[in-house]
Amino acid sequence: MAYLDHAATTNLLPEVKSLLVEQLGVAANPSSLHESGRKARQQVEEARERIAKAINVRAAEIFFTAGGTESDNIAIKGLHWARQRDAKRPLILVSAVEHHAVLDPAKWLADRGEATLEFIPVDQLGRIDMKWLDAKLAIAADQISLISVMWANNEVGTVQPIAEVVELAARYHVPVHTDAVQALGTLPIDLTLIPVAAFAASGHKIGALHGTGFLMLRTGVKVEPLQHGGNQERDVRSGTINAAGAQALALAVELAVARQAAHAQRMSQLRNELVTQVKVAVPEAVYNGDPEDRLPGNAHFSFFGAEGDAMLMLLDAHGVQVSTGSACSAGIAQPSHVLIAMGMDSVKAKSSLRFSLGSTSSSADIAKLVAVLPDVVARAKSAGMASETKVKAQV
Amino acid sequence: MKVLTALSGGVDSAVAAARMVEQGHDVTAVHLALARTHEGQVGSRGCCTPADARDAKRVADVLGIPYYVWDFSERFKDDVMDNFVNEYAAGNTPNPCVRCNESIKFAAVLERGLALGFDAIATGHHAQLKEVNGSKQLYRSIDVAKDQSYVLSVLTAQQLAHSLFPLGDVTKAEVRAEAAAKGLLVAEKPESYDICFIPDNDTAGWLNKQIQPKVGKVIDAVTGNELTEHDGAHQFTVGQRRGLHLDRPAPDGQPRYVLNVDTKTQTVFVGPETLLSVTKIFADRSKWTSGSAPEVGTAVMVQLRAHGEPLAARVVKADEEIEVELDQSTRSVAPGQTLAIYDEDRVIGSGTITRSSR
């Protein structure tokens, strides 16, 4: 089996697994006042401090959540609502290539009439248009509640000029949220150098547990909570704190940051090997995203005329696991909004596959892929594009 | 064999898939996304809802086979839903399940499956396939009440050659029992009789939203008198008695039925039941499921609607167009329905009814 879908989720780190086995047997609620509670609280606060140190923020700026989606939701909805307290600021600016965890809460607010949503356009490589953003801030800064630009794109891997965005927005005192789910552990992150207002991260993308994550909220940045109850996490996120999960997350974040440079170097080399071999195997393959400034483990291709779904199914049958990279509703593939925003038409967008590498990936995985890829692409092409090609019934 | 099995989320396709797995085939499940709106999938019973997609996925997981969703919603809209509306607008009474089998399940889906390396498609239709002199022949299910050979009579011999119907030799009750015994949680799911893309079973209401209503006259075919006005000829089907809104009874006191719908002039002709009697039935778009057309003069059985009785008839014409003459007259044959032709329980082929006469 060749698992080439590490951007969807990656394996639990062995160190994290050992820690969890040890911690999960303990009955302890960090909010309890007795000894077990105190001990758990101690561990949760240490975890908070360790995560803060790893990305260079203050411990009080880390809020544990149930993952990237929840962190993004608090950042978008919570921040937008809080920004209405002292002035009317209806406008939310998000990049056109955000993950649905950012897009959908912003659209939800707009659909309810609580916000006006505008998309920051991107170029053909998926990089946001800084001139557009500059011009928009110049004319409407006082109307803007927040800007959300992901650190790096989950589908095509393009890294956004987040430092420039933060610098520009700071001039107008507009807070910037970044979804860094794909960036943590793969790109260097130091939040003193890039002082975003909010930063979302997910545990399972870096070898911690599913259902864990954190939101960094800069001191002074207020959010309205989305869930109410026991007032945990300083009212930002009620709900019993997952003490074992928080410790596992802290260990995974520490390891991800400590190993980032070496990991990124190995991933880039392996990724370049994959890209070269795919282009040899299928010369007409189109490499998407920024060829240079991209996530080290990401390779994203279009095979025009072959449907992504069909290729995925055929590769799966050969034990090669990849993703079409796009979101699905009820399992139905939609053309990727990321590729559409980059100027691709919907038929071409549906002909794409994402290959993403992780710590367990090796050259053997790439060999398995390219051994079957030419036949898979040819077969998928012969089947056509299900939703577009019109095959009339024999009359 | 590499078998593609269509899983709707219902009990029949679940057991069909299970039987394919048990027979040792290399089975892959696909759930077809067909009826959709921009909001997502239309809510309905028995197929096409997100809940059905979940049920289908659960069945595939229990059977341990790969599961994928194939989106044929655009083609379904073009070939089935739009066809349904256009046919009603033209005064015909279409059968969307027949069109779906003809242009989606056993055409677009089958062709895609074959191109992707599958050998056959298996569905949960209640019909039998038998090998006769080296060719596959389609027969009625042993469960007469559940028999679906009528909606499969539009398949060509080539399509049939790549089709598998694993449920032809069992009754519906046995299918449910088998599903329960295999631990398939869809065992108790209710039947889906309705049109899958019409969520609340209100076909007339749905059509009224699709078809621009045109006022027309209701005319007594016997006297030529105008009886009333109507607000859309598409709402009338030949043989229909209810919903005519006639405030005056017929002079002889007998009920009146829709005899003919002229959508060019938006005129609906009504008259006594006796005028509904027909013996000659004409059809076009012939399909010879058995592999060849019957010879003129052959005595056959014909079926004129999905759950209609088989009627004895004689073939008058059988090439691209079909004409049959019934041994005994029948009433109310609606243009647009399928004329399925049988040799006893074996399907010979079918056509789409264009008209009928005495």
List the SSEs and their pairings.
The complex is a heterodimer of chains A (395) and B (358).
Chain A: E1 2-3, H1 14-23, H2 35-55, E2 62-65, H3 68-82, E3 91-95, H4 100-111, E4 116-120, H5 130-140, E5 144-148, H6 162-171, E6 176-179, E7 198-202, E8 213-217, H7 243-281, E9 286-287, E10 298-302, H8 308-317, E11 320-321, E12 328-329, E13 332-333, H9 337-341, H10 346-349, E14 352-356, H11 363-383
Parallel strand pairs in A: 1-11, 3-4, 3-5, 5-6, 6-7
Antiparallel strand pairs in A: 2-8, 7-8, 9-10, 10-14, 12-13
Chain B: E1 2-6, H1 11-22, E2 26-33, E3 36-37, E4 40-41, H2 50-63, E5 67-71, H3 73-89, H4 96-115, E6 120-122, E7 127-132, E8 135-140, H5 149-152, H6 157-161, E9 163-164, H7 172-181, H8 203-210, E10 216-220, E11 226-230, E12 257-262, E13 267-271, E14 277-287, E15 299-303, E16 311-318, E17 322-331, E18 338-343, E19 346-357
Parallel strand pairs in B: 1-2, 1-6, 2-5, 6-9, 10-13
Antiparallel strand pairs in B: 3-4, 7-8, 10-11, 12-13, 14-17, 14-19, 15-16, 15-18, 16-17, 18-19
What does this structure look like?
The complex is a heterodimer of chains A (395) and B (358). With 395 residues, chain A is α/β, with parallel strands linked by helices. Chain A has 2 domains: 2-6 and 260-383, Aspartate Aminotransferase, domain 1 (Alpha-Beta Complex), CATH 3.90.1150.10; 14-256, Type I PLP-dependent aspartate aminotransferase-like (Major domain) (Aspartate Aminotransferase, domain 2, 3-Layer(aba) Sandwich), CATH 3.40.640. Chain A has 11 helices and 14 strands. In chain A, helix 2 (35-55) packs parallel to helix 7, helix 3 (68-82) packs parallel to helix 4 (100-111) and helix 5 packs parallel to helix 6. Mean pLDDT of chain A is 94; it is low at 389-395. Chain B is of the alpha/beta class and 358 residues long. Among the domains of chain B are: 2-124 and 166-188, Rossmann fold; 212-271, Roll (SH3 type barrels), CATH 2.30.30. Chain B has helices at residues 11-22, 50-63, 73-89, 96-115, 149-152, 157-161, 172-181, 203-210, and strands at residues 2-6, 26-33, 36-37, 40-41, 67-71, 120-122, 127-132, 135-140, 163-164, 216-220, 226-230, 257-262, 267-271, 277-287, 299-303, 311-318, 322-331, 338-343, 346-357. In chain B, strands 14-17-16-15-18-19 form a 6-stranded antiparallel β-barrel. Chain B has a 5-stranded parallel β-sheet with strand order 5-2-1-6-9, sandwiched between helices. Chain B is globular. Residues 37-46 of chain B have low confidence and may be disordered. The interface between A and B is medium-sized, with 27 and 32 residues.
